[in-house]
Amino acid sequence: KASTRLVVMGAAGVGKSSLISQFLYDKFNERYRETVEDLYHEEFEVNGGTVHLEVLDTSGSFSFPAMRKLSIASGNVFILVYGINNKNSFDEVVRLRNQILEQKKDQNPAIVIVGNKADLENDRQIEKDDVELLSYQWNIEHFETSAKNKTNIDRAFKEVLKRAKLPTHLM
Ligand code: GDP
Ligand code: MG
Hints:
The protein contains 5 helices and 6 strands; from the N terminus they run βαββαβαβαβα. By secondary structure, the protein is α/β, with parallel strands linked by helices. It has a 6-stranded mixed β-sheet, sandwiched between helices. The longest helix has 17 residues.
């Protein structure tokens, strides 16, 4: 059975769990619940067959570097999330991208970068143009999203699934 694993990574509190919850269940929670690690399974019917998508929601704290390494090893496609209101979280995205490319250099992994909390424009610390320039050089798609307002989330997830060669027109 065809199965693809999407791994969502990024610093703690940037909105990884919220993005997944909006994408899969159309739900948003204002309260913060720390994630250890959650795995979601979704099945999509395609031309009489079934495509199996797994979404791995990770903890951003990574007290265990070995756990991060395992998360990367298990993934086919990656969404790297930062908060547009948090410069440090963008630096973490840069580190994560380096680690993924280093660890999976023979597999040409698909990566999409997401700047979440776009609704917090007044607290912006990362300019969109700067990230666009960098992601262009990296040949990586970049989206600004708001899990709170549900903006751009489907576009971001569909882009990464397209890069994983899943039939996104059915979703
Ligand atoms: P995670 O640690 O990366 O999984 O982050 P969470 O998804 O748990 O979200 C952390 C906090 O940020 C929670 O209180 C969420 O309600 C909030 N949050 C998540 N996404 C957004 C967003 O797009 N805008 C705003 N304003 N808050 C958000
Ligand atoms: Mg979480």
